[in-house]
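Obj.: predict assembly geometry.
Materials: sequence records (below).
Method: joint structure prediction, all chains together.
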Amino acid sequence: MTPEDFRAYGHQLVDWVADYWRRLAEQPATLPVQPPVKPGQVAGQLPSKPPAHGEPIEAVLADLDQIITPATTHWQHPGFFGYFPANTSGPSVLGDLISSGLGTQGMLWSTGPAATELETVMLDWLVDLLGLPARFHSHGPGGGVIQDSASSAALVATLAALHRASDGAWRTAGVDRRYTVYTSTEGHSSIEKAVRIAGLGESALRLVEVDPQTLAMRPDALRDQLAADRAAGATPALVVATIGTTSTTAIDPLPQIGEICTQEQVWLHVDAAYAGSAAVCPELRWTHAGVAHADSYCFDPHKWLLTGFDCDAFWVADRAELVAALTVLPEYLRNAATSTGAVIDYRDWQVPLGRRFRALKLWFVLRWYGAEGLRAHIRHGVALAARFADLVRADDRFELVTDHPFALVCFRLRGGDDASNERLLTRLNAAGEVFLTHTRVNGRYTLRLAVGSPHTTEETIDALWRDLRRLAELA
Amino acid sequence: MTPEDFRAYGHQLVDWVADYWRRLAEQPATLPVQPPVKPGQVAGQLPSKPPAHGEPIEAVLADLDQIITPATTHWQHPGFFGYFPANTSGPSVLGDLISSGLGTQGMLWSTGPAATELETVMLDWLVDLLGLPARFHSHGPGGGVIQDSASSAALVATLAALHRASDGAWRTAGVDRRYTVYTSTEGHSSIEKAVRIAGLGESALRLVEVDPQTLAMRPDALRDQLAADRAAGATPALVVATIGTTSTTAIDPLPQIGEICTQEQVWLHVDAAYAGSAAVCPELRWTHAGVAHADSYCFDPHKWLLTGFDCDAFWVADRAELVAALTVLPEYLRNAATSTGAVIDYRDWQVPLGRRFRALKLWFVLRWYGAEGLRAHIRHGVALAARFADLVRADDRFELVTDHPFALVCFRLRGGDDASNERLLTRLNAAGEVFLTHTRVNGRYTLRLAVGSPHTTEETIDALWRDLRRLAELA
Ligand SMILES: Cc1ncc(COP(=O)(O)O)c(C=O)c1O
Ligand SMILES: Cc1ncc(COP(=O)(O)O)c(C=O)c1O
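Observations (raw structure tokens):
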């Protein structure tokens, strides 16, 4: 494909995206959030072998419209309220387009000086923007890096914690003793996965009790568990505290947990995958109280900061520890810049070797919106969630299940059993105008409404509420 | 940013990419492959804080041109011969643009039915295109998935191997015995990293001797090492064989290695990160002899198949084993489709939870080029490498260090010591017209020329050769 072909097709595809977004914003009803697709439906419409000879882009676009889009869950839809959001934005897509075009592979500083340094600066900007502890800033011994996901960040934090807990023996000896890892019963499943991947086995994971009211980790329970494990000869290596749990956005009490970790000399990783973005708003910084205790911290700009997946921002207070845990330096990667020690080679901060120039999309987003623009985005979501919560609160047939400090509201039919709530959710989603998911809170089936799309309006919320009230009659 | 803003800026940025590619192809001398950048130069030109208020895209584009591009290593440059290539293409960028615009997060089939099924079909297409064993096809118990990198593929293979070697105990118990992992002394550093991440410690890694001539793993040495480890009470879990080692593209003897792995019941992972793409050409399939023994196999379309980073294609012969090793199913991810068992949830095939719709770029590439177009691309690289090798062979001052089955040529000054070869490389790269990297072969400093860019021509090679001959006088 010549550059001129690319120019022509590129314009066409930009138009495709612009039209798609327009339709999502202006005629959302024409695109069901989650379309009625049957397993095998997409595969069944595609040839079983690749073409022998090249095909025109027009043929691909026709299949895109006829096969792919109709079988796509529209995460950017104003009625998408499932899981946590994963919203992108114009500037994010533009930045990523440049990244794709440059095709830089920034495994080393020397293979992408601009990619490396822009990433360091963007992570420093975020420290400032979120009011994170200065120890995460690259000017000192700390620093930040983009991981693909909060799951990978949890894994990398686990590895650095094992390196520290073993005084460096882990690199050579592996898991040579009984390590233990702590998170609350509401901690994300990626902690369990990281523990398993790191070779500790699920038996090493301690799910610390939460307060049944707040669903936040109980510091006393953490302290007791740590003591019991030490008494049993285990080596506590890592505590993962969550700001904004997946199920209900509970906030673990970092001031107390942090103190315990300091006393016990255990690595504290803070997982703020979703809720971290809220810290761009000064009035929501209280959710991050105690974060200065963290040895590492992550949040996902790809969840709630208008940056397309994948983009997890991850910091450590001591980058030397992280690099020591992960570095490998074969001959073919040696180079003059690395040997000076004056540069960051991000391959040593992550699992993969190669890396995309992901800082560009963040740069485009942070500059296009500016701090105030991003605050407006977060406030928009928080306000819509509050509007919805008010409606729920005012209606006897429903109840709020937990607080809603961010833009997630957990609710259910008051007095309804699990089956009736599940039926309600199924019916609500069936029309395709909205998509919500569920969780269980203290064992009970609960609906979750997570606001995130910049296209969601008060009218989206009000229409959803009308549907809910109507369906509650049937439930 | 409204859809109409995006449309206008999008056209502008597509033009930026088209102009950049045109310049790389038509005036490569105006862009030094590796620009003379000093550590801190990019960071020093950027503000230390994010802007309070949004800025226009024009301001970002100005900085892109003045700060970022001049400090970028141009991986798409026709004179980029370093490491292994990471070439993208027009259709790849177009496919990725659609992926960014859709913003689908396909962690589950239900959160991206089209993303999931297109990925399965693309990996099936690749089985056909590369002539890989039918057991990798999703119609049977096997199947493929896109990982970000060959490094992550090696990690995931290691985890599945541990799961198997422990009869499933590893998930709960972790590394509860002495496992061992095998690759050759020429195996990629990502194997060492995977072993470390999996908690086995570097002491678990056996670097099996290679034949000093071919640099391929010696099956007898593998057999001896396995026997010695078993005798010492270790549990061999994984052998990683390489098709196309990083240093010299050596090919491990899979027929013999595979037989040993079958007898010893050890998981065989085949790492064809770079060289896998060559198998699109029937005349290069001999390099994959014995691949039917593999329990898992990976190659990087992002290296040599015109698909932008990141895109590693990874297959297992038994997907149930892989999923059993990696699955976690918290309440908030339960859904009707998953519970039927009729769908693939790719989050259980990888480390991260979330996932981008990466199959789109592969789909665009495979359809635009077709099998024949991709073969032409591979043959172009192989022919240019052969042309260069002929020039080296015909000149007394140089010597070829190894065979060149693919598009990598390893060479050095005949009789020159390490220092003179290193000087030669430094001087050759200094002008910015080409960029090569080095390795050590049997301890001796060796230059590597890896052809990959579709823009590289005979004239690029001949000009490089003229430079080399001139510089050889000075060395
Ligand atoms: C608290 C928390 N941690 C981690 C994750 C995992 O996110 P990712 O897909 O970035 O791995 C999630 C996802 O929802 C989350 O809510
Ligand atoms: C043989 C081999 N395996 C693995 C890798 C790692 O590649 P990735 O960046 O995809 O992890 C490379 C990179 O050059 C390689 O040559």
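Conclusions so far: Chain B has three domains: 1-34+73-88+370-475, 38-67, 104-356.
To do: check interface contacts against the pulldown list.
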